[in-house]
Amino acid sequence: MSAPIQQSHPMQDDVMITVQHVSKSFGSHAVLKDISLTVRSGEIVGIIGLSGCGKSTLLRVIAQLEEPDTGEVQLSSSNYSLVFQYSALFDSLTVFENVAFSLMEKPDADYLKKLPPNERKRKKYSRSELNDIVKEKLRMVGLEEIENQYPNELSGGMKKRVSFARAIVSNPQILLYDEPTAGLDPIASTVIENYMIKLRDELGVASVVVTHQESTIERADRLILLHEGEIKWEGAPHELHTTDNPFAHQFATASVEGPMALEAV
Amino acid sequence: MNTLAFLSRISFPVTRQAIRALKTELTLFFETMGQVTLFQAQLFRYGLQREWSLRHILEQFAFVGVDTMPIALVMTTFTAMVISLQVSSQMVHMGASAWVGALVSLAMIRELAPIMTAFSIIAMAGSAFTAELSTMNISSQVNALQTLHIDPVRYLAAPRILGGTLALPVMTVVTAAVSLAGGLLIAVLVGGVTPDQYMTSVQKQITIRDLVLMLLKSGLFGLVICSLATVIGLNTKGGAREVGLATTRTVVTAFIMLAIMDYLFTSVFYGSTAST
Does the interface ipTM go beyond 0.95? Predict the structure, then answer.
């Protein structure tokens, strides 16, 4: 039995994402088991855990790329973006076209029908307006003069930053990140992390970040530790090193000994 | 007796394996056909909602037409020349040189120009569509579209299917015309048929109905090839190996489908008039 994902529901005060009792299996393998969480406006929630614990699947369920087997996901806004782990830039388009894509292309009519009437009309941007927006977003992630290049001409780190610029171009109210700083040099990582915080503080963007990176973990407001598809611990980043929770303790100390056996991954 | 026992012992597992492989292939085939049917329904819905982008359709039309035309022309023209070579000498020998043009045009316009142009499209555009879309799928580019509320069927599949469906009849007209000219060249140079005899027999044999059916058949072939290629591409999961397998699957399935469809088409439209 599958439960539909709902959008634009009136939710309690400033709650932007509500995940209720979500479970998801692939064949006989249960990847998510009865997950519930909420993310508020202006909050960065970090999802941590060993590889294969269900972090990316949870993010894909929130992003509506996977339908949960049971449970429900509610997003308070349909204006959300996902920063993909491996960039997922459109190979056949230039950097400019990639970043401006959501401003140039018309969304599906079915999607537009679900929006409130005042949001259905899409602004048509002129070429110079698009140029200004794209340049500004690229400058924000430390990239300039690469608008006419194709993704295959960029390094991995540059692709990731272009992917981030594409995600923020439509000023989303919800941002989902799948390993946003993996593979980036420390300076590029800081650029992305700083911008993540800026979006939170200035625009109240709600963010969910799947990450292994220490610096990104530290910048989250709240952490959720997943193991074998279940939430094993939840708390603030500074509590990760002081908690008695054996799962969090093992993760924080990167110890081989503990409840999270590698065989289970 | 021992040989018989040995043969039955080894043939049993081989047969079982072959039956299992056949079952898997048939399941895949019918699964793909089901997906193609669902795709057509979605395309029809988008058509009603006028959600097609003319620019994207024309881009794909140009891609299919321009990239495939040279190979399609070479294949059809040389085939017409071979037919002309074969029949010219025989017909002239029998005193029936007035029939050379009729035979070449009958073969090319009714059958070979549409099917050989379609084969070229499978080899060039069909395989390219599957390879491109399956690569986009496994590298999350299709997911990226979905997060932007853009249905990949509307944005990626529809322009390719419509572009291909429109391109194939146009290409077939060109390949049929050029191949008839190739047949004429050989009939004149080798068979000693006069150009006038050749053209008169072509005009006598080929009717408007033949031309309309040629266009209809080509359009149908284009629809099936491009639908298959995009359906298989957008449903590919895995890695580089799966991209290769998906491309092969498109080519093989499309070849089989075309052969079956060609027979059915000829049976329906020419079955009772095959002798004319």
Answer: no
